[in-house]
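Supplementary Methods S3. Complex input for the calcium ion-bound model.
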Amino acid sequence: MKTSLAAICALTMLATTAQAETFSADVWVDNWFALNVNGEQVMEDSVPITTERSFNAESFSFEAERPFVLALTMKDFKENDTGLEYIGTRRQQMGDGGAIMQLHDAAGDLVTVSDSDWQCLVVHKAPLDTACADETNPVAGEGTCGFETTEIPEGWDTVDFDASEWPDATIHDAKDVSPKEGYDDVEWDEAAQFMWGPDLKTDNTILCRTVVE
Ligand SMILES: [Ca+2]
Ligand SMILES: [Ca+2]
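Predicted complex, serialized as structure tokens:
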């Protein structure tokens, strides 16, 4: 009896562990990202969002069991809730975002890429009037410098979450994103596209998710 129970336990463990696969990811985001898989963070951009001109790609691997959700939190740099950067200098501007990613399995086969199959929710949008970028003293929440924040939905990074109400990711041209440092270090599959919210400039913080079956 003891033996058979132990054998069953061993078989169960084997079956459980056998389902976990190793995946390798390449992610490039202007400017910062964190990647959660089924509610657990597996990667955070190694360059803090507070770093000026933080352009870099991250290549890393993680283990997961299908189905799993890839949940990217992404931020375009902003100095404050005006959404602007270089405030008070001649370079004062809205700044822009953009992201590209690809995922391969252990055999090197492509599993998924950034494309319009992802759902994205903009959770920080500013400025609400682009004339804010030309204000001599832009103040968040005043005049043209309004901003909009959305609460991050509970459990959005888990498979059970219903994102059917979320808009599809917006695909942007490479020339509009103009990817910088780090982007060229990765050999991108031609299927990988630049995704973001509808507006590269005023969509500052965005949640994007997709389920890998
Ligand atoms: Ca940026
Ligand atoms: Ca921006």
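The chain has a mean pLDDT of 92. The pocket of calcium ion (ligand 1) is lined by residues 30-31, 76-77, 95-97 (CB under 6 Å).
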